[in-house]
Design a protein that fits this description.
This protein is an alpha/beta fold and about 450 residues long.
């Protein structure tokens, strides 16, 4: 299998450390608000990665962490703790907030048919591991203490800017208005932050340096190496993590263990919305549950995400979501109720393996799906081949509930059409029928009811 490695900026042949076994660490959510579809994009992409590796015969140990402490509003260690902020906003304790949004994250994984990871460690359950890691980094001479915490001296790690091609000189120039005047270098980051004097934080712990909490980057190095070893196979995250979070994780790994903690670093692009990145600050974000209320099965979103390449991202619009819905319904219409023989087409399977092994070429995989659909294979062979592909696609094609969901919008248009018909306004009624057709659905007027079905 070939994957694009951010370390070398090229596609590389994937060579696991242990034969037939892969360790993957994915940076998880900070559980302080509802995950929106932009957050979930990454987890669908990495689910495709783990499913692909399993399909290719590997045993996969994948870890997604839960960040429930230490992530400040700015990734560069300034601003407020996101968890404490969420707690104040909702009038709940930080612990309640963490539980609430961890559960929501799990529900999202379920809705999007993302396989539960092997481990889902929480930062607050690993404070001792984080303290031990900082001690190691300190013993090896990479830390210094200032008034608000223990910091990593990035000038001690010669290759600091290499991973992200950072221009450290420029960073210095840009940091003239540095908020924290005590830091030795603008890129230095907090390993342990002291609780503010005269203020009790809801989350704080004793440490050899004083009462406080770990810096955000520490948890990922501590937990990834605890579960997967000092060097493991793949580390994933959003491309916004390259410059700060992952650069700092790599620095911590070298300082503590004198090695790169991961051999392959993979990064996903984002869902964009009218050209700009979906982020919490841009507002108006859909969650999977919003889309469900609008009549979209979460598998439609998954199908839409599969149509994008993880390194390119996805431009989101309701129109393209509707198109995905039509396509998915069409795919489901190939279902053979009871397969008498489960015969996967070997030629198409070979093509499929080539595509998934080429840095997860999912848009091409979907094109292959439609090539199979249009081929002259028997219906049974087509469906058996789809079910085999679905081990990676994860569209739940074989689920017992195969009901075709008609979006609310179509139902409403049809209700209007029926009204026009009752009023004998056939011209308007036909116009609506055409409109519904242009959106991918056919209406059939039966004696006492009206049936809507997708055009296949
Ligand atoms: Zn992380």
């Amino acid at each position: 299998m070939k994957i694009y490695n951010t370390l070398t900026r090229q596609k590389e042949e994937f060579k696991p450390i242990k034969e037939n076994e892969v360790g993957i660490y994915s940076c998880g959510p900070t559980v302080y608000s509802s995950p929106h579809i932009g957050n979930m994009y990454a987890y669908v992409c990495w689910d495709v990665l783990t499913r692909t590796l399993k399909y290719l015969g590997y045993k996969v140990n994948n870890v997604i962490n839960i960040t429930d402490v230490g992530h400040l509003t700015s990734d560069a260690d300034s601003g407020e703790d996101k968890m404490e902020k969420g707690s104040r906003k909702e009038g709940m304790s930080v612990w309640e907030i963490a539980k609430k949004y961890e559960n929501e994250f799990l529900e999202n994984l379920f809705e999007l048919n993302i396989e539960l990871p092997w481990k889902m460690p929480k930062a607050t359950d690993h404070i001792q591991e984080q303290i031990n890691l900082i001690k190691k980094i300190e013993t090896n001479g990479f830390t210094y203490k200032i008034s608000d915490g223990i910091y990593f001296d990035t000038s001690k790690f010669v290759d600091y800017g290499k991973f992200a091609n950072l221009n450290l000189e420029k960073l210095k120039e840009g940091a003239r208005v540095e908020i924290n005047q005590e830091k030795r270098n603008p890129s230095d980051f907090a390993l342990w932050k002291f609780s503010p004097v005269n203020e009790k934080r809801q989350m704080e712990w004793e440490s050899p340096w004083g009462v406080g909490f770990p810096g955000w980057h520490v948890e990922c190095t501590a937990m990834s190496t605890k579960y997967l070893g000092e060097t493991f196979d793949i580390h994933t995250g959003g491309e916004d993590h390259i410059a700060v979070h992952h650069t700092n994780e790599i620095a911590q790994g070298y300082a503590a263990f004198d090695c790169n903690t991961a051999n392959y670093w993979m990064h996903n692009a984002f869902i964009t919305f009218g050209g700009s990145k979906i982020s919490k600050s841009s507002g108006g974000l859909y969650t999977v549950f919003d889309l469900k209320e609008m009549g979209f099965d979460p598998m439609v979103l998954r199908y839409m995400i599969l149509g994008s390449h993880y390194r390119k991202g996805l431009e989101f619009s309701l129109e393209s979501l509707r198109a995905a819905q039509v396509a998915l319904n069409k795919l489901k219409s190939y279902k053979v109720e009871s397969l008498s023989s489960y015969k996967v087409n070997e030629n198409f399977k070979k093509e499929f393996i080539e595509l998934i092994s080429n840095d997860l070429a999912m848009p091409e995989v979907l094109a292959l799906v439609w090539k199979v659909a249009k081929s002259d294979l028997s219906l049974e062979e087509k469906w058996a081949t789809f079910l085999d592909f679905d081990r990676v696609l994860g569209l739940n094609l074989d689920s017992v509930e195969q009901k075709i969901v008609v979006p609310e919008e179509i139902v409403e248009l049809n209700n209007k059409r029926i009204l026009f018909k009752k009023e004998k306004n056939y011209i308007e009624a036909d116009k609506l029928r055409e409109k519904i057709k242009s959106l991918g659905y056919l209406v059939e007027d039966l004696e006492n009811q009206c049936k809507i079905r997708p055009i296949t």
